[in-house]
Automatic annotation (TrEMBL):
It is a multi-pass membrane protein. It comes from Lapidilactobacillus dextrinicus. InterPro entries: Cell_cycle_FtsW-rel_CS, FtsW/RodA. This is FtsW/RodA/SpoVE family cell cycle protein. GO terms for molecular function: lipid-linked peptidoglycan transporter activity. The keyword Transmembrane applies.
């Protein structure tokens, strides 16, 4: 009898309930916000009931993905990394030929498959595949070579070799926002990979200088002419104009941002209350979902949502330190950077701190492919605790 009791306890300890609780709270925010957004907006293709049911269905699919991925231990994740990456590349290539024409006309991006009414963005599931592949590359390199300046440059080159094909394909899809997410993942893994600061410091300074040059280019007429020659479009310049001066054009290109800021501001400290909507915001069920939270639940509700994200990140970091596995550390870093960048960019653009990029709010915005990609990332983190606790339990019970 005691053995059975210990076995049950050991199995339950393998599940990280802190992470699950954070996801559950975010799911509640998601369902409530999507309902409010759709119940006040008229759409010929979506009703509030359909939108909520679809989001719940995608959460169910994501939950199944988490359970499946949890079964993969570190050795199995290591083996499937190249295959997952390869499949992701194939999907990114295919979407260039089979993209949703209507969506491409609407937002300029060729990044969505469309099969009837079903749409899917392959770059979202490519994110976790890219993360485990990058983790494998760094771990494999560090196991064979010591950290010298020469070897660190080799490591950086290896990481770029696996990153550049993704960035090129996203550029061809004209999906700049998603490119930024992959760059954030890449930067996070580089920072923890052990590469010398003699390389990182000049690289960071170089990025800062490039950023300063980019600001100069987008704020001058001659600079915009140069950017136009390399593929920048008028709508991208409009987004920058609206970011720099939100009140400049509140009825045309700046309408979405201005309405989002109005909605969030109207919520004040405690919000107007659930299902009260006085300010219309375009696409508020997905990219601008934070405007719904700000209007309904106010500053306090927005801060609580951000706190839930911090708790989720804290739980992820805690799992990483507990497992003490190098490959897992790089994988968790990639997942954390993916989620952090999404949260920072989405909320930042909703309140006017950052330009609009079309990046959804993780686990809250409407969208099946984004939710599935994030849930796969959660599955990777959950698998760390699941197999580490299983390993520790087996050691204790076989002494």
């Amino acid at each position: 009898m005691p053995a059975k009791k210990h076995s049950w306890s050991g199995n339950t300890d393998r599940v990280d309930y802190g992470i699950l609780l954070s996801i559950l709270i975010l799911a509640i925010f998601s369902i409530m916000s999507i309902y409010v957004a759709t119940v006040h907006d008229t759409s010929p293709t979506s009703t509030p009931l359909r939108a909520v049911v679809m989001q719940l269905a995608w959460y169910a699919v994501g939950g199944i993905a988490v359970i499946i991925i949890m079964q993969f231990d570190v050795a199995q994740l290591w083996k499937i990394a190249p295959y997952a990456y390869g499949l992701g590349i194939i999907l990114l290539v295919l979407v260039l030929f089979k993209y949703d024409r209507q969506r491409a006309i609407a937002n300029g991006a060729k990044s969505w498959f469309a099969i009837g009414s079903f749409t899917f963005q392959p770059s979202e599931v490519m994110k976790p595949a890219f993360i485990i592949m990058l983790g494998r590359v760094v771990t494999q390199h560090n196991a064979k070579l010591e950290h010298t300046i020469r070897n660190d440059f080799i490591l950086l080159g290896k990481m770029l070799i696996w990153t550049l094909p993704v960035l090129v394909l996203l550029k061809l899809q004209n999906d700049f926002g998603t490119m930024l997410v992959f760059l954030a993942i890449f930067s996070g893994v580089v920072l923890v990979s052990g590469i010398s600061w003699k390389i990182l410091a000049p690289a960071i300074i170089g990025v800062a200088l490039i950023g300063g040059l980019a600001i100069l280019l987008v704020t001058t007429s001659w600079g915009r002419s140069l950017l136009g020659l390399v593929g920048f479009h008028a709508y991208q310049f409009d987004r920058i104009n609206n970011w720099l001066n939100p009140s400049q054009d509140t009825s045309n290109s700046g309408y979405q941002l201005w309405q989002s800021m109005k909605a969030i501001g109207s919520g004040r400290m405690t919000g107007r209350g659930f299902n009260v909507s006085k300010v219309y915001v375009p696409v508020r069920e997905s990219d601008m979902i934070f405007s719904v939270i700000g209007e309904n639940f106010g500053f306090i509700g927005g801060c609580f949502l951000i706190l839930v994200y911090f708790m989720l990140i804290y739980q992820m970091i805690k799992v990483t330190f507990d497992t003490k596995n190098e490959f897992y550390a790089y994988v968790s870093t990639g997942v954390i950077m993916m989620i952090l960048f999404h949260v920072f960019e989405n909320i930042g653009m909703s309140i006017g701190l950052l330009p609009l990029t079309g990046i959804p709010l993780p686990f809250v915005s409407q969208g099946g492919s984004a939710l599935l990609g994030n849930m796969i990332g959660i599955g990777l983190i959950m698998s760390m605790r699941y197999h580490y606790n299983s390993y520790m339990y087996s050691r204790v019970n076989h002494r």
